[in-house]
Predict the structure.
Amino acid sequence: DVKVTQSSRYLVKRTGEKVFLECVQDMDHENMFWYRQDPGLGLRLIYFSYDVKMKEKGDIPEGYSVSREKKERFSLILESASTNQTSMYLCASSLLGVPGTEAFFGQGTRLTVV
Amino acid sequence: AQTVTQSQPEMSVQEAETVTLSCTYDTSESDYYLFWYKQPPSRQMILVIRQEAYKQQNATENRFSVNFQKAAKSFSLKISDSQLGDAAMYFCALEDQGAQKLVFGQGTRLTINP
């Protein structure tokens, strides 16, 4: 059973804290993505990576950074959490170079910044 | 820029009936893929169906089918014989083939009435 696993289902953090969201996939996928999901806005891409130590900005990278030290792990970092970063965060992975390939998603992390 | 628009925030249907979810998109690419993803309550997002733009025939997967109108840039999802397990958020998505990242619509919440 293929899996994308996010380290936390729910997180509550204080304003100004540094927050780490972890994502691990066991499918040997090259592509990994971090999306933010908000009501009425759908999913918006924060960052993506198609190889170890590679990263590309998505549509809303401000206030976020990422790390990919190993192929299976992609971390999203909120350097200084703010209340407007309260949201659902989804990690996904897919095969590189296969147009139309299915993306596999984690269960999501609901982050609340107070 | 590529965009995807879902104009129906919520839809409801009686069990065993048929429902159609709408999606329009914009892209300058000539070949691309379109997807419908399903996000059940508190569960992971999964692929429902996909369509390659070059293929004239509409994709079908059991009770799920699409109506792909390339000239109109429309990609609707039809669910036949609706079941209680179909209740979910449904997202339409367009693949940016260059980076294999997905552009999502705002989502449609589907309720199935018993």
Observations:
- The mean pLDDT of chain A is 95.
- The two ends of chain A are 36 Å apart (CA to CA).
- The longest strand of chain A covers residues 31-38.
- Chain A touches chain B through 29 residues (CB under 8 Å).
